[in-house]
Design a protein that fits this description.
Elements: E1 4-7, H1 10-18, H2 29-34, E2 39-47, E3 50-62, E4 65-73, H3 86-98, E5 101-106, E6 111-116, H4 117-125, E7 139-140, H5 142-153, E8 157-158, E9 172-177, H6 183-189, H7 192-203, E10 207-211, H8 216-233, H9 240-253, E11 258-265, E12 268-278, E13 281-289, H10 298-312, E14 317-322, H11 334-341, E15 346-350, E16 354-357, H12 360-380
Parallel strand pairs: 4-5, 13-14
Antiparallel strand pairs: 1-2, 2-3, 3-4, 5-16, 6-7, 6-15, 8-16, 9-14, 9-15, 10-11, 11-12, 12-13
Helix pairs in contact: 7-10
């Protein structure tokens, strides 16, 4: 098979995405409009005249070397990862280098390992276990191992850091499989605390509504609560304008793409979440909660509403997004995985993000710049 890579229109790209069952929302044409600080383009892989693959490429210039860009394909591209990757990635590299890219960064949507909730819970309880990778994987994906090997042999460099979070997207996710399951099955799979919290929210009269994201009041209410959450939990919130842009771009492409969930108790907004859906996948994207009235469990009510709606929409999986691989009870990050483990889902490790330097000298300068920037960031937040 001889493949060629060339630009395609947003309409062609969207049509290809809509024909697939599993595509990340980060690989939709609309995502390029969300990331306004990047220049975006849609590329297609052709076998003769037939479009067989597609990818959203985000271009970011190098500081002081604006004619060169990092070409980034988050959680993509959408190609056949089961075969020989050279046939797919060599023409991509040739096209992007000719266009001025100094390196390519991509994140294959390919799993390597899976751990069930019960196994993760056992690991957290075991003082001898500190990381997910200390536990035997219950499902090793041979495709993931093969992709990792082929990328390394072709000169690609792994970028996933020790904690699973880096400049790009997390290597570890927590997912809830939905295929062949009912609401009753999903509730039975949750731990006792989650079931109790869902019942508590219902008993307390928490009402979850799907807000109209095109109405400013709903999005503003979410954002106000999100900023409150950021202040409490010590992270930097995105501005309201970012969410306005996200809503306009994503729902302009598909009016059912992004949904806003608002949980109220006696008129007070106690939790709010954003869910994104593409094809047969749904993602918990953003969440916020009030410090007051936490006992009414608005966050659990929002999650349960999103899970039920994903199931009703025929989704294969509900993705609770990133986790760190730590299972050390003394690590403050372990609370994140403990919360998500309660759903009864699975911890999943992906192949992670990889770089292919196309202009080694520029790439080395960029790497030094990024390392310095990360060091400054860690000092600023007090991380050793």
């Amino acid at each position: 098979m001889t493949l060629t890579v060339q630009p395609i229109s947003s309409a062609e790209h969207l049509a290809f995405v809509q024909a697939q069952r599993a595509v990340s929302f980060l690989q939709t044409p609309a995502w390029g409009s969300v990331k306004t600080e990047w220049r975006s383009e849609s590329l297609g892989w052709y076998d003769g005249r037939r479009l067989v693959g597609a990818g959203l490429v985000l271009h970011r210039p190098v500081p002081r070397l604006e004619r060169y860009t990092l070409a980034y394909l988050p959680e993509g591209p959408v190609i056949d990862w089961t075969g020989e990757l050279d046939a797919w990635l060599d023409p991509l590299a040739a096209y992007l280098k000719a266009g001025g890219a100094f390196a390519i960064r991509l994140g294959p949507p390919v799993r390597t390992d899976t751990w069930c909730a019960a196994r993760v819970k056992e690991g957290i309880a075991d003082p001898g276990i500190e990381r997910l990778t200390d536990l035997p994987s219950q499902q090793v994906d041979p495709v993931g191992a093969r992709v990792t090997s082929q990328l390394r042999d072709a000169g690609w460099l792994p970028q996933s850091p020790e904690d699973g979070f880096g400049a790009g997207h997390p290597q570890y996710n927590f997912v809830l499989p939905l295929v062949g399951r009912t609401e009753e099955d999903l509730l039975k799979g949750m731990n006792q605390l989650w079931r109790r919290n869902i019942k508590r929210a219902a008993k307390e009269g928490v009402e979850v509504t799907v807000g109209d994201v095109t109405v400013d009041e709903g999005l503003k209410a979410f954002h106000d609560l999100y900023v409150h959450t950021a202040e409490r939990d010590h992270f930097t919130p995105r501005p309201l304008r970012y969410f306005e842009t996200m809503v306009a771009a994503m729902n302009g492409e598909d009016p059912e793409r992004l949904r806003l969930y608002l949980a109220r108790h006696q008129g007070d907004l106690v939790a709010a979440t954003i869910m994104v859906r593409v094809g047969a996948q749904a993602w918990y994207s953003y969440g916020a909660s009030s410090t007051e009235k936490r006992e009414v469990r608005g966050s659990n009510a929002c999650q349960w509403a999103m899970i039920r709606d994903s199931l009703e929409a025929g989704c294969d999986v509900y993705n609770l997004r990133g986790i760190t691989p730590t299972l050390d009870a003394a690590d403050p990050h372990v609370g994140l995985i403990q919360f998500k483990v309660g759903t009864g889902g699975q911890a999943v490790r992906y192949v992670g993000e990889w770089d292919l330097p196309l202009r080694p000298m520029v790439y080395r300068a960029f790497d030094v710049y990024m390392r310095r920037r990360e060091s400054m960031r860690r000092r600023k937040v007090g991380v050793a």
